[in-house]
Write a structure and sequence with these properties.
- The protein is an all-alpha fold and about 170 residues long.
- It is built from nine helices and no strands.
- The longest helix has about 35 residues, at about 5-40.
Length: about 170
Amino acid sequence: MRLILPFVFVFTFTTSCFYCQDKNADALQLYTNGLEQYNGQNYEDAITLYTKAININPGFAEAYFQRGCAKHYSDNYEGAIEDFNTSISLQPKNELFYKQRASSKTMIKDYNGAILDCDHAISLKKDYDKAYALRGILKIEMGEKDGCNDLEKAGEYGYHNAPIFLKKYCVK
């Protein structure tokens, strides 16, 4: 009996690992197909494929993130924020997730929440040009002139539209 138990354990463990690999491969294939649909601006089809990938692998942070992006471009900002929340809970150190959630929060006029998300994204990546740009525009829209400082930083870090926004909002 003692000889059989280790064999059963090893057999069960290796079988379950192969099963996980197959499931993850299936989820990755659905995700990849979703990216193709997303890039073709077929957002509803992309959402369906990302959802299938998530159903197979509920810990697939990138699938939640991409589904959030597709929902954002389908004008489902609340749904996008929910997906970004999940992707952030799975990968809390990914600055892109916070910046994208800030974009969706901007669309529902949660400017303070969007600024906090930009703050967090910048804390994770000090030279995050797009987060500086979004935060700068939001601050200016809220009447805070120090938003121009963020737009200047965005330009310093490579945001190519910074001069346009600086001219529009900051040069008098």
